[in-house]
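Worked problem 6 (solution included).
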Amino acid sequence: MKKIFPLLVVVVLVLSGLGAVALPEADRKQLEKIETISFSKPYVQDKGDYVSLHIDESNNYVTEPGRPMVPMFVKVVDLPFGAKNINVLCTVKGVHEQVISKDIIPAPEPIPLIVKRKISKEISIDETVYSSTELYPNEWYSFRVGCGLNYEDEHVTHVAIQVYPVRYSPAAGKLYYIEGVDITVAYDAPTKPVTFADTYELVVIAPKKFSGIINRLVDHKNDYGLPTVLKTVEAIYDEYTGVDKPEQIKYFIKDAIEEWGIKYVLLVGGLKSYWDNDDRDNENEGSTDWHVPVRYTNLYDDGDVQDPGFISDLYYADVYKAGGVFENWDSNGDGIFAAWDKPGVPNDVLDLYPDVCVGRLACRNRIEVIVTVNKIINYESTPADPSWFNKMVCVAGDSFPSDFIYEGEFTCDLALELMPDFEPVRIYASNRDSGVGLTPSPENFTSVVSNGSGFLLLEGHGTPGSWGTHYPGGIEWTPILLIYHFLKLSNGEKLPICIVGGCHNGLFNVSIYKTYGPENESYWSHGMPIPECFNWWLTRKIGGGSIATIGCTALGYGIVDFIGYSAFLDYLFFWVYSQMEQHVLGKTWSSAVTEYVAIFGNYFKLDAKTVQEWALLGDPSLMIGGYPG
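Solution. The predicted structure is:
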């Protein structure tokens, strides 16, 4: 593999610097000094026309496209759920000036992970920043407050503090850096501590027609000590009000958290037909042709490719915002949900931290419910045999034309480093050049996956019905893997947890007429008839496939010679599984989202989109590897 771009090593170590620090319980109105952070002097590396900037203690970078990539230090502090009037004061110490001869390299432009996409390697810069003497960033620090779960399943208030130890004046060619910072957090304790019941841990939400089958799953979960209850969508619609059906569902989830102590929500139901559906009632929701409704966002991409809104099941998981109040995803009350850069519509500010672990079985009929329920019961009832479970299959290549790394393979290698107890099985495009190992192809994929593995990671490009990557150089495509190739998978009950990096592989609103007919351009199918999307087909496959699949419902994004956006979130999944030992699937999913939001927040549109579109198609309460015997 080619020489690694030095910035990458720092970026993927970001979480080693994150820590949740709890303030003393005695006097929560008292101003408390949290910590003093010291920083070493920045050093620069020549990059031709630019220089890159580094600080040893930094655990991330400001990556606003086209603007200087300066170091950032992220600190997360957890406060009691319901804390109010939160403020953060960072007092900087020892400000110094340094002259540099070249501009700091700008953050790379994000590139959608779609097929048939011409990729430009030209560096673009924001002239409004680079021609100015104003300091970038414009402050020494920023912070963001939200509500979510910690690693002990407690509802807390997250305070994510971003410290910028170096600020840059481009037109003056000067850096201003600090020796350290004192971080102080002030807050008002809740007047009455918030407590939640512990009646149930899992609630299954499904239409009444599926209840007979789902009761088998409910009994199974209860037998294994996970208190579980079924709630039908019909009952929710009768008992709860809201601006639309997704909000009615969400209000029920809020009550289920507060009155039952729910930790997991399993939505059972997708579209009602393989052939043709009105998958979108309006810009905000899909309900009429859905067994369980979906929330559509109104986030619009930049550039010449657009998702005119997309499905986000994170909506159902993000129940609270700062102060412990209900998060409706319509912060300005204009009736347009999760808006960002939609023409003529004000942007919404969202919390984005999961308050409950949500997954979906996007079943279209009773047969699919039977298949997936049986897979879950069989998977959990018998501990996985290490002979197949302790393998991790990675399929990847050179995602973009690269001078330094093969982005997909590099992401997989980073994930594999986190999983030393798992035998790596690399299906890499670069193996063609080395002459050793398998390369990505439908035949190699089906052959290797049919042998079984605990985890399966694909990093490349996608559509709702296909996945592929590039050979080294980032231009020539490997043979494309289609959903129809899944028919040859024969791994039986040796089922992996699958993570798919690529655009639209989790777009579970497709149907044959919509993808093959006159509307196919809106469904990214390139005219290929797709009855169900890549990720769901793999999950609900009879006689094999996966036990659960996580991936993008919309345009995923990556960066040339960098690990960012979708790939970084995929990496976080394995970091949480291995380093934080989160071995319940929904906890691994929600913790990865929480870490991403803590680092990048809701500051940049594509970071918000990255977590909104990352859908878990599977049981969030699933015990990875099955329950011990």
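Discussion: The radius of gyration is 24 Å.
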